[in-house]
Amino acid sequence: MLKIAVLISGGGSNLKALIDATADPDFPAEIACVGSDTDAPGLEHARAAGIPAFVVRPRDSDSREAWGEVLAAAIQEHHVGTGPHPGLVVSAGLMRILPPGFVRAFSPRLINTHPALLPAFPGAHAVRDALAAGAERTGVTVHVIDEGVDTGPVLRQAAVDVRPGETEAELHERIKQLERPLLVQTVREIALGELALPGAR
């Protein structure tokens, strides 16, 4: 059984999808803990499901690296990132760039969802950027987090056509409809050994 830690900053819709998936006893992963950088409303999903949840605020640390160290320690307390079965850390809506020390501690067992077909439109405004560029197609990517910004190896993608006159909010919502099942599928494949994480031991 693959142990996963999920990191969020907001409402936790991807987290909820993972909680629903792991409620099935046949799903090959379990959520060991949920962490956030703020008092995110999505933490309620974890608490309602009886999953340990914690908040590690950057402002409580002296630097980004120090924040990353505290966050890493909180995850490792739940036996993710340690031992012979190090599990997986899933950034599912964490709205901060993870510091290099944290990335080195967990990558490549550290994945993220991004609302574009990487390498196109990296960064915080991917949906807006796709519309501004006149893209006819965009989508969602699940990728390994490395020390760059949305530059890690791509694991899985799903595409959606951009509709004429569509707003950023409308397009983002349609991307989210693809994002949740794609993330669940990717975690399942990693847990079953059907999808290899580049460089993982």
Radius of gyration of CA atoms, rounded to a whole number: 16 Å
**Structural class computed from helices and strand pairing:** alpha/beta
SS elements, strand count: 7
Q: Biggest sheet, strands in spatial order?
A: 3-2-1-4-5-6-7
Function: Catalyzes the transfer of a formyl group from 10-formyltetrahydrofolate to 5-phospho-ribosyl-glycinamide (GAR), producing 5-phospho-ribosyl-N-formylglycinamide (FGAR) and tetrahydrofolate.
Binding site for (6R)-10-formyltetrahydrofolate: 64, 95-98, 112
Pathway: Purine metabolism; IMP biosynthesis via de novo pathway; N(2)-formyl-N(1)-(5-phospho-D-ribosyl)glycinamide from N(1)-(5-phospho-D-ribosyl)glycinamide (10-formyl THF route): step 1/1
Domain Formyl transferase N-terminal: 3-187
Description:
Catalyzes the transfer of a formyl group from 10-formyltetrahydrofolate to 5-phospho-ribosyl-glycinamide (GAR), producing 5-phospho-ribosyl-N-formylglycinamide (FGAR) and tetrahydrofolate. By secondary structure, this protein is an alpha/beta fold. The chain has one domain: Formyl transferase, N-terminal domain (Rossmann fold, 3-Layer(aba) Sandwich). It is built from six helices and seven strands; from the N terminus they run E-H-E-H-E-H-E-H-E-H-E-E-H. The protein has helices spanning 13-22, 43-48, 64-76, 100-106, 126-132, 168-192, and strands spanning 2-8, 29-36, 53-55, 88-91, 110-114, 137-144, 154-161. The chain has a seven-stranded mixed β-sheet, with helices on both faces. The mean pLDDT is 96.
